[in-house]
Amino acid sequence: MTAKTREHRGPKPVPPGVEYHRVLAGEERRIGRGILAIVLLLGGMFGAIIAFQMVGAWIDGILWPGVPSDERLVLTPLAHALGLIAVALVIPWSMFLQRRLYGVRGATLSSVVSSFRFDLFARALLTITPALLVALAVFEFVSPGVTAVWQREDVIWMLVVTVLLVPLQATGEEYGLRGLVFRVAAGWGRGRWTSLILGIGVSAALFSVIHTASDPWWNVFYLLFSIVTGYVTWRTGGIEIAAVLHSVLNTLTFIFWIALNADISVRFDRSAGGLDGVLLITSTVVFVGTAAVVWFRTRKTGPARTPLEPHEDQGDRARSRLRNGL
Q1: What is the 3-state secondary structure (H, E, C) of 212-236?
Q2: Distance of alpha carbon 307 from its chain centroid, rounded?
Q3: Low-confidence winner among 113-122, 224-233, 247-256, 306-315 (lowest mean pLDDT)
């Protein structure tokens, strides 16, 4: 096999100077292929969740012999762990789908430099974590929720599972929604701004739908969160800050629930009237503040793009030049 043949069969190079959301855009819109990618993405995610839940229920039945399922914890540590792992698998699944359906390397979903920028991630983590910690603390203080009885061992294992796996679950959603879906939908538009609106709009709508909230204010919450994470992904050229925002929000939320012995069934309520206005206000301040800081830091450079030359080294020099964000 010649070098030319190997190059042809390999992944397509990302065109130089392209913004994150336009990586999959081409002369053809490929709407059918995009819909297929989204269906496979969501089907794979929910298929894994259902399969892992069945396994978890079977194992819990062995661990809780003779105890009816309705008398166990609403969310056991094992069920919690398996559900998180199922969603975390969206990371390799979304990369696989992009590679197979579009011929573009899965690693490009991380950022415009085709790798996860841990330096940007760390800076965002140090900035966003205190802000969300204060926001959630204010909410829990002002609006205390219903409590339940927690066993000591459940508290311990729920904390371990939460700290280790919730960040992976949240990052999995970001790779799927702010990564693959964002790019797929953006590829349906011709112009830069049309693509951006389509990408953020479709990913935000799907994010709200998969969380199945009947409360309109919960849907406002999900849409606002999705718009902000889509915006920072576009401006910084990668999913790192979106992953931090999502991971910290989910992790701290679970930690507060565990620390306060919250009734999980009530906290997961997404029916009408389920969202407390204090949570909406405090979280909105953090979300909008994050978007504002990202805009301020990128106001002169604009959105991060792929390297200007296809052969350009993607090491420290390229990363430092392309690094945008907090």
Answers
A1: CCCCHHHHHHHHHHHHHHHHHHHHH
A2: 25
A3: 306-315
Residue 304 has pLDDT above 50, yes or no: yes
| pLDDT score for 64 | 59
Quote the tokens at residue 225.
């969160």
Query: Do 230 and 178 meet the contact criterion of CB atoms below 8 Å apart?
Result: yes
Class of residue 14 by CB neighbours under 10 A (exposed 0-12, middle 13-18, buried 19+):
buried
Is pLDDT at 23 greater than 80 in this prediction? yes
pLDDT exceeds 60 at position 314? no
Q: Apex CA 233: angle with CA 172 and CA 278, to 5°?
A: 80
List all residues 6 or more positions away from 3 whose beta carbon is below 8 Å from its beta carbon: none
Rounded to two decimals, the pTM is: 0.88
6, 100, 104, 153, 236 from 9: Cα distances, Å: 5, 12, 11, 53, 30
